[in-house]
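Bench log. Compound arrived from synthesis this morning; before running ITC I wanted a structural hypothesis for how flavin mononucleotide sits in the protein. Inputs:
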Amino acid sequence: MDIKQIRQPVYPIDDRFINRWSPRAFSGEPIRDDELMTLFEAARWAPSSFNAQPWFFLYAKRDTPQWNTFFDLLIEFNQQWCKNAAVLLVAISRKNFEHNGKPNANHSFDTGSAWQSLALQTVFMGLAAHGMAGFDAEKARVSLNIPDEFHVDAMIAIGKPGDKNDLPEAMREREAPSQRKPIGEFIKEGGF
Ligand SMILES: Cc1cc2nc3c(=O)[nH]c(=O)nc-3n(C[C@H](O)[C@H](O)[C@H](O)COP(=O)(O)O)c2cc1C
């Protein structure tokens, strides 16, 4: 697929920003442990308020005893395509600073930075990542023993890109990089 035919930035940016998108077609193949650690390494260098690094990733690889526990958290729509992912992640963030125990208002903002770094790294490696809100966060807290000091942010599917023809029909039609609002709709010089 030639993404440049579909996504055309108005101002020049590195191609890798438009090459990152969220496919649902995964091949079902595993990814190596060192590849997975490289993704976490990319996340590790994200910026954060007070360099607190509030992100934490719980994960399960396919064909391991933990997989079903993670898979069962997903809504049915996401289960339909995530069954071919290689790894499922639950991204959580520490709500208070470790150095003084005070609330960190930016914990999810910073965990979002880490997730984007991880997602961009998948593109550099010929892999793909797909963020998800469609899961039961309270069930995750219980079944994965997530302490109260963490907020449950999102789930992420990671894997090798697959064939869109293997997706259910409704998803097959939507399997393409999406567009964006114009810059003018989300910036304003000066106050709101
Ligand atoms: C926090 C978050 C939650 C999302 N939840 C879901 C989801 O539950 N199921 C799904 O299929 N896609 C989900 N997506 C994918 C978005 O729909 C997708 O990122 C968006 O349409 C932009 O497309 P792109 O990532 O391909 O550029 C989610 C993405 C993010 C970042």
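What the model suggests: The radius of gyration is 18 Å. Residues 50 and 97 are 9 Å apart (CA to CA).
ITC booked for Thursday regardless.
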